[in-house]
């Protein structure tokens, strides 16, 4: 049995869909990316797992225990970072983290110092004086200060600058190497590619697929854009794996999934002005890769 198990987990808000028939297993010691566009049901799923809201149907267990019946007990070993963080603005960072630590029956002072140092968080500042990014750092420290077995992160890197994101990923790798299981919600595919072992993909409240990161990268589409000095006919790119082909004078764009050598040979035959090959938006993957 996995650390997290859901069976037919469903949540409706009146007539509005939250998540439907979600059956998912998160293994002990893995980093699972839970990805999908905004509104796909990611935050709803996390709130259900934390029993912050109750399901319309189905069930979920964490550590083999029902999340509703054993909620308070389970939460002692979970670290949670919500997508939006709100705190007592008048408190100093250090005082707030000490207050948060008082809910756990252990000395968290060394852990607070270690994490705040890694994230370059000033413990003497008042929360009201912090930027959005520094408030997010407070949330990260708060979620990890009690050394939890399971870490649940909902869009965790919003507001962090690129250097701090790098530090954050390194922190998660270190936590994972120490045996922690991490459930990582994001709508940015490149973000989860940096750290996750597997990805579970949700769209419109339903689980679309679960892939290892290796398979996702191997099977992923690429967006190709070309500027040419010659007019290009669509027959040149009439190939398996090419979709969403658009031709406009010397501009060619399409999505491609397949052997890169095949498409590279076609591109090399053209008189190019410029070209780009990049990762498509996650929404494009949903439209083309998972149809």
Short synopsis of the structure:
The chain has ten helices and 14 strands.
Structure characterization notes:
- With 291 residues, the chain is α/β, with parallel strands linked by helices.
- It has two domains: 4-217, P-loop containing nucleotide triphosphate hydrolases (Rossmann fold, 3-Layer(aba) Sandwich); 221-288, 2-Layer Sandwich (Alpha-Beta Plaits), CATH 3.30.70.
- It has helices at residues 42-49, 71-75, 93-101, 109-118, 132-144, 162-177, 189-193, 213-219, 260-268, 282-288; strands spanning 4-13, 16-26, 31-35, 57-62, 65-66, 78-81, 150-154, 181-186, 198-203, 206-212, 222-228, 242-248, 251-256, 272-278.
- Strands 6-7-8-3-9-10 form a six-stranded mixed beta sheet, sandwiched between helices.
- α4 (109-118) runs antiparallel to α5 (132-144).
- The longest helix has 16 residues, at 162-177.
- It is globular and about 70 Å long.
- The two termini are 31 Å apart.
- 32% of the residues are buried.
| Poorly predicted tracts of residues | none
- The number of distinct β-strands equals 14
CATH fold field value of the largest domain: Rossmann fold
Q: At the first level of CATH, what is the class of the largest domain?
A: Alpha Beta
Query: How large is the radius of gyration?
Result: 22 Å
CATH hierarchy: architecture of the largest domain: 3-Layer(aba) Sandwich
Within CATH, the superfamily of the largest domain carries the name P-loop containing nucleotide triphosphate hydrolases
| Mean pLDDT over all positions | 90
The side-by-side strand order for the widest beta sheet comes to 6-7-8-3-9-10
Q: How are helices and strands ordered from N to C? A: EEEHEEHEHHHEHEHEEHEEEHEH
Strand content: 25-35%
Shape: globular
Overall structural class, as computed from helix and strand content, comes to: alpha/beta
- Put simply, the count of helices is 10
How much helical structure, as a percent, in the residues?
25-40%
Alpha carbon gap, first and last residue: 31 Å
- Major beta sheet summary: 6 strands, mixed
Number of domains: 2
